[in-house]
Amino acid sequence: MTRDRMLTLGALAAGLLFLSPVLYSIWMSFQTANAYYTGTLDFTLRNYAVSIGDYGFARYLMNSIIVSGLVTIAGLAMATMAAFAFARWTFRGGNLLFAAVVATLMIPSHITLIPNYLTLARVGLLDTYAGLILPAISNGFAAFFLRQYIRGIPRALDEAAYMDGATPLQVLWRVIVPVARPAILSMGLFIFISEWNNYIWPLVAVSDQDLYTLQIGLARLYKLNPGEGSIDWPLVMAASTLTILPVLLGFLLVERHLVRGITMGAVK
Amino acid sequence: MSAIQLTDIVKSYAHGPQVLHGVSMDIRDGEFAVIVGPSGCGKSTLLRLIAGLEQVSGGDITIGGQRANDMAPQDRDIAMIFQNYALYPHMTVRQNIAFGLELRRVPRAVRTARAEEVAAMLRLTPYLDRKPGALSGGQRQRVAMGRAMARDTTTFLMDEPLSNLDNALRTEMRTEIKELHGKLKATIVYVTHDQTEALSLADRVAVMKDGHLQQFDTPEAIYDRPANRFVAGFLGQPAMNFALARDLPGLRAPGDSIAGLRPEALSLHGTAPGGPALRARVTLSEMTGSGVILHCDTDAGRMTAVTPRHALPPDPGALWLGFDPARVHLFDAATGTRRPAPAAQPHTANLSA
């Protein structure tokens, strides 16, 4: 067996190992609870119908898409503009401000939980979409990441656009954003996934069931089926599959850009 | 009117050195002005100041009769061609060329027609739908020119636009730029470190060194009457020979003068000629195709001479370098500034190596 072949097989085995819990949960989601507990085979789509219909997962899915989508769009817009300013403009206190942005990366998100909660409570934004979205929009990491990318874009491109008659916003929108698309899409996916998987903040900020996101809805399934043995695991797995499906699709859509974004600067 | 006046332009950076020291130039409407100088002399900075990409620290820039110091680049109505072309990589050639018009809200039909017209002029029509990444260096350079030409402007700034091209393409593009200037009747300010480009393209050449303008004059004047030793040595290939004037026979000049002799002003002789001459020993010869560059040791120091191959003396190892004192340039040894042409003194003897 050649070395390449062994490496391929090794990589395949490692991939399967990582994938096996996901594959097993998807497999389980198509079984009835009875079949699961008795070790027999009995395929059904009922778990999906129940989680979407009886447990309101369609609503949670929509909430998650709205919240994650808007956080991603607004977060990217803010981060891109901030990154452009930090990368291209020299202004008094600019370095200090950028250091402050980077410093936010060192603050654990849980520390901001209570201040954010109190602030939103004071302005009456708890139990609203705005309450779920606003605190997540400012993203120091995205601003830092995009600033580094934009710094790698030749400044001559901006200058050419200025000479062509562009305003700074036009330079950003018509030149920088298209050129930085791999980085922006990668960052967008990162933001989307982290917001999609966000559990603590929606749990704290929302008590209205109509505003539950998928992660809260998923946890609710356990609450509704308390006690080991009585949990309908195939139902939980169907709901989990529903939860990861949009992210998986999103990943497949931007995978090419994501890889380019991650490896940027590695090769010319 | 697109004349450009630069008056006492000073540029310095915070916590950095002063880059330009009071540069004044009066570039006429429709003139092809070339700024030339070694790396770091401030020529590109000067161009960027005219473009508005950087702010002057002192002095005035007037474009078309209007003071432009505080104008944003987009308000100066100037087109610029960058050294690395700066084409928008995500746009096709057509979009690149038409982008400036699009920003000025020119109707789509008009800008498309204009882009196609310019592309035809630059032989880019087959590539209109390609992106810059799929073009060769020469094609990219032409797109950069097309982008500038599509704009309805009469002032062009070019920052070493040919420096990334190979020699053959550079020669071809040089001709095209010169022809284009004739067609457009535009004011062009062109920056280069290549003296051949400077001399062949310019109506007038500005020679810069260390942020100071050394001379701004026609190529002929710059070559034939350099204002100082730096200009004399910078322009000319091979470079001008310098020696102490007192070491050259047959020359009447102040004792502290430096004499400059263009290589082509030296004539080669197998035996001592009638006029002033230096005995020389050839240390190296370089074949350049039609001619030969000879590096020689003489009593006045190292000298370089050029000659057609067929005119090489039978024994090129040892020969005489004759010269006409009227073609000798004199410079002040201390300041380097030009001195009046030397007088010939009655010929008495040649110096031997």
Give the topology.
The complex is a heterodimer of chains A (268) and B (353).
Chain A: H1 3-29, H2 33-38, H3 46-53, H4 57-88, H5 94-103, H6 113-122, H7 129-137, H8 140-151, H9 155-164, H10 168-179, H11 181-196, H12 200-205, H13 214-224, H14 233-262
Helix pairs in contact in A: 1-14, 3-14, 4-7, 4-8, 4-11, 4-13, 5-8, 8-11, 9-10, 11-14, 13-14
Chain B: E1 4-12, E2 18-27, E3 32-36, H1 43-51, E4 58-63, E5 66-67, E6 79-81, H2 93-103, H3 108-121, H4 137-150, E7 155-159, H5 167-184, E8 187-192, H6 195-201, E9 204-209, E10 212-217, H7 219-224, H8 229-234, E11 241-244, E12 251-252, E13 257-261, E14 266-269, E15 277-287, E16 291-298, E17 301-308, E18 318-323, E19 329-332, E20 338-339, E21 343-344
Function (chain A): Part of the ABC transporter complex UgpBAEC involved in sn-glycerol-3-phosphate (G3P) import. Probably responsible for the translocation of the substrate across the membrane.
Transmembrane segments (chain A): 59-84, 96-117, 129-150, 171-193, 233-254
Subcellular location (chain A): Cell inner membrane; Cell membrane
| Range of strand content of chain A | under 5%
What is the CATH superfamily of chain A?
MetI-like
The secondary-structure class of chain B comes to alpha+beta
- Counting structural domains of chain B, the number is 2
Helix residue percentage of chain B: 10-25%
Query: What can be said about the biggest beta sheet of chain A?
Result: none
Q: Judging by the overall fold, what is the CATH architecture of chain A?
A: Orthogonal Bundle
Order of helices and strands of chain A: HHHHHHHHHHHHHH
- Rough outline of chain B: globular
Model description:
- The complex is a heterodimer of chains A (268) and B (353).
- With 268 residues, chain A is mainly α.
- Chain A has a single domain (3-267), classed as MetI-like fold (Orthogonal Bundle), CATH 1.10.3720.
- In chain A, 74% of the residues lie in helices and 0% in strands.
- Chain A is built from 14 helices and no strands.
- Chain A has helices at 3-29, 33-38, 46-53, 57-88, 94-103, 113-122, 129-137, 140-151, 155-164, 168-179, 181-196, 200-205, 214-224, 233-262.
- The two termini of chain A are 35 Å apart.
- Chain B is α+β, with helices and mostly antiparallel strands and 353 residues long.
- Chain B folds into 2 domains: 2-228, Rossmann fold; 238-339, Nucleic acid-binding proteins (OB fold (Dihydrolipoamide Acetyltransferase, E2P)).
- Chain B is built from 8 helices and 21 strands.
- A 6-stranded mixed β-sheet of chain B has the order 6-7-8-3-9-10, with helices on both faces. A 5-stranded antiparallel β-sheet of chain B has the order 14-18-15-16-17, with no helix packed on it. Chain B has a 4-stranded antiparallel β-sheet with strand order 2-1-4-5, with helices on one face.
- In chain B, α5 (167-184) links the parallel β7 (155-159) and β8.
- Chain B starts with a strand and ends in a 9-residue tail after the last strand.
- The model of chain B has no long low-confidence stretch (mean pLDDT 89).
- At the A-B interface, α9 and α10 of A face α2 of B.
